[in-house]
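Instructor's aside before we start: the two examples that follow are unrelated to each other. I chose them only because their records fit on one page, so don't look for a connection. First example below.
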Amino acid sequence: MFALPLGDEAQLRPLEPWQAQEFLEHIDRARPTVDPWIPWASFSTDLETATATLQRYADRQAEDSGRIYGIWLAGTLVGGVMFTHFDSASGVCEIGCWLEAAGEGRGLVNRACRVLIDWAFRERGMNRVEWMAASGNTRSTEAARRLGLTREGVLRQRYPHRGVRLDKEVWSVLAEEWPAAAAGTSGEREEATRA
């Protein structure tokens, strides 16, 4: 298994079904901030459902249609990043992220997302990376902004969650834009490392 250092005693590693107990414990800690925005967090409530969530991503990775990675801080799973959708034929993928309170304010999501975006463009030749967030999820939309993604618009009442239809913001970056977005201004780079 690989482990990529993210700085500050943090690592990015694959998150696999055999880690379901650790994943469940993490989701239970993250639930107050994650559950309102990420539907699969609502479904990962016991070992069986947590395993099923990770198995879905393992199946997607085997099909080359998605992947999931965890962020460990000093040996504890505190969040993650993922390709929720990966379509190499069309050259379009979608990334997402989540983080529990113990990992906040360190720039971990920003650094981990940059790894995924770099890989999608440079290794896999993708043309477009998308980021979708519920309109009220300001932490997610701010993360997209810090990464240099462009807000394209809002899909009104796009999906139901807990009996309410939520609007979804669409953000993206194109391969031709990514080197400039990755470089950013010096102020953006400093802010990104704190995100």
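Example two begins here.
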Amino acid sequence: MFSISLGDESLGCNAQLRPLEPWQAEEFLAHMNRARDYVGEHIGLADRATDLTSAREFLTGYAQKQAADAGRIYGIWLDGTLVGGVLFRIFDATAGNCEIGCWLEPAAAGRGLVTTASRCLIDWAFGQRGMHRVEWIASAANARSLAVAKRLGMTREGVMRESFLYRGVRRDLEIWSVLATEWQPA
């Protein structure tokens, strides 16, 4: 199994980015139980993995997406504990477009883990897969996610007003992107 270091161990941060697979459903569910309120503030992942069956189904869905070259999911481990993740929610190699997303539990926030992990995904998408465009779509109310898009050097393209129905409330979505010609690899 591969892992990519996300933190400086000399500073006491032993963080890794690794594939997140169906056999890890119990660990994923335990993580979601710790993160549910924080993650559920803005994204539906908290509502999709509520028991072992649904956690396994969620991860299996991404295993199937990866087999079809249509998406991928990776976990972020901090000191051996799953604390979040990043994913290619959409991956269209033919069109050269993909969308990445993220989530994190509160105990791991503020360390730059999502930004660093997202940078790894974008580097791979452009450098290895020859993608043309990477998108970041988030609730306009999700300041933490929008801050990551800014730190990654993405361009805010616009707002889709009230386009996202979440827990009975219509929310605006912001669309951010970066093109291969604009990307500065790490």
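The chain has five helices and eight strands.
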